[in-house]
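note to self — DONT lose this again. spent like an hour looking for the file last time. sequence + predicted structure for the chain T wanted, 257 res
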Amino acid sequence: MVGAVQDAGVVVTGAGGGIGAALARRFAAGGARVVVNDLDADRAKAVADEIGGTAVPGDASAIVADARDALDGTIDVYCANAGVAFGGPDVADLGDEGAWATSWDVNVMAHVRAAHELLPDWLERGSGRFVSTVSAAGLLTMIGAAPYSVTKHGAYAFAEWLSLTYRHRGLKVHAICPQGVRTDMLAATGSAGDLVLQPTAITPEEVADALFEGIEEDRFLILPHPEVGAYYRARAAEPDRWLTGMNHLQQKWEAGQ
């Protein structure tokens, strides 16, 4: 696996901490040249300095050109990792159009915009790797987090579309779908996260390990929590039973509010 990323030009968005920082460190350890992106310029620089990479702070939707310049013209791997999470327990939260717009822009359209910029070069040379940090919420659903759940479904659908459309032209796509990961985002989920995600939460480094295993095995769907595969199959096979089970979780959460 180290040989596969040696000297590769890698971009990781949202890499000032959490999963993104773990991915950046893992690629750098494998010999890749890594661009570290984050809205927080200080956090991006701190991680870049640590791993010998280059910080390119700013909006993840608009950094491909600058990242390409920082990598001497070639991006081999793009990790669309930056994400936001909004949610709430009642119908009033569904009217927060700002939360919906931001979620759509960061969780979905940033991936679309990056792919639009990357694909011409990748298709011309017949190679490229797009890594989408989705979430188990993109396969299933998370209680108390409508904008997050819906847009993560969108991110997963876009990754699927990229793979089925361009895999015969050399594009490799990976969708990482963990459940709880010990990050600031998990801490911000409050009681819903405590109920559903904290009991089986893993470290960002374990997510990076799962990605590298998935790359080695050339797998599209990467499940750092293997049990998510069983949940996904149950959801598809018996949706009403699955929804009833999730509703029981919803009621348990509401009772604890």
